[in-house]
Write a structure and sequence with these properties.
The protein has 253 residues and is of the alpha/beta class. Helix content is 45%, strand content 15%. The chain has helices at 16-30, 49-56, 83-89, 99-104, 109-121, 134-138, 142-154, 159-162, 183-201, 203-208, 219-226, 243-252; strands spanning 4-9, 38-43, 62-66, 93-96, 125-130, 166-169, 211-214, 233-236. Strands 1-2-3-4-5-6-7-8 form an eight-stranded parallel β-barrel, surrounded by six helices. The longest helix is centred in the last third of the chain and has 19 residues, at 183-201. The protein is globular, with a radius of gyration of 17 Å. Bound molecules: 1,3-dihydroxyacetonephosphate.
Length: 253
């Protein structure tokens, strides 16, 4: 049985001081919670990782992640952060290919494949994002869009590696807009992604892949979304910045 994962992507919100405070609030609730087969991942800005990861040490099934990394291990790349550094700071997951990075930093599938490799090389888990824009949805090309994001960004991986990746479907039109994909719309794409994986790597690997949904997940809609057959949890943005909302979403899973 696949476990449920609730990941909170803090994006470029919170100073280190505010991040510590939010993490302390989360620790206070999470340390008394029985997570069962759920896992919780907190993904703050790079600067906060070391401090926040140490706060979660000792709380089972709660860990830290990063929002991006460079594709090389080290080098003269001013301003960049490598997966090796992220690992040493205490994080276990790295988001790769978030739509905001695809859009604002022009990251394409080929580059993202190299980033996924860099993350896996460090023994960390990539959370690889895909999702269509509003125009792509309205033009009816959303299957093609996610299909090329997945095949170009991931299908170079050997079967023993793809199983270490977490997928996240985040329709761009639902991110930060308050407009959530309906559970049926999300399920349709999640099932499509699982089928795509089965075609490339076989049914067993596809059945074991964790596929998260992201895009305006809130306490009020989480249970319905997470109740769908192929939705294995959420990648939460805005609602992850308020401890009570994030905890409510975890409880809904
Ligand atoms: P929101 O939950 O704010 O829509 O953001 C989703 C997201 O981009 C998570 O990575």
């Amino acid at each position: 049985m696949r476990s449920k994962i609730i990941a909170g992507n803090w994006k470029m919100y919170t100073t280190p001081t505010e991040g510590d405070k939010l993490a302390d609030e989360l620790v206070a609730s999470l340390k008394n919670m029985d997570l069962g087969n759920k896992k919780v991942i907190i993904i703050p800005p790079f600067l906060h990782i070391r401090s926040i990861a140490s706060k979660f040490q000792g709380i089972a099934d709660v860990s830290a992640g990063a929002q991006n990394c460079h594709q090389e291990t080290e080098g003269a790349f001013t301003g960049e952060i490598s997966a090796k550094m992220i690992k040493d700071a205490g994080a276990e997951y790295v988001i790769i290919g978030h739509s905001e990075r695809r859009q604002y930093n022009h990251e394409d599938n080929e580059l993202l494949y190299n980033k996924v490799r860099a993350v896996l090389d460090q023994g960390l888990t990539p959370i690889y994002c895909c999702g269509e824009t509003l125009v792509q949805r309205e033009n009816g090309i959303y299957f093609e869009t996610v299909s090329s994001q997945i095949s170009e960004g991931l299908f170079g991986l050997m079967p023993d590696m793809i199983g270490k990746v977490i997928l996240a479907y985040e329709p761009v039109w639902a991110i930060g807009t308050g407009k959530t994909a309906s559970p049926e719309q999300a399920q349709e794409i999640h099932a499509f992604l699982r089928n795509l994986l089965a075609g490339q790597y076989g049914k067993e690997i596809a059945d074991n892949m964790i596929i998260l949904y992201g895009g305006s997940v809130k306490p009020a809609n989480a249970a319905e979304l997470f109740g769908m057959k192929d939705i294995d949890g959420g990648l939460v943005g805005g609602a992850a910045l308020k401890a009570s909302d994030f905890i409510a979403i975890i409880q809904a899973a």
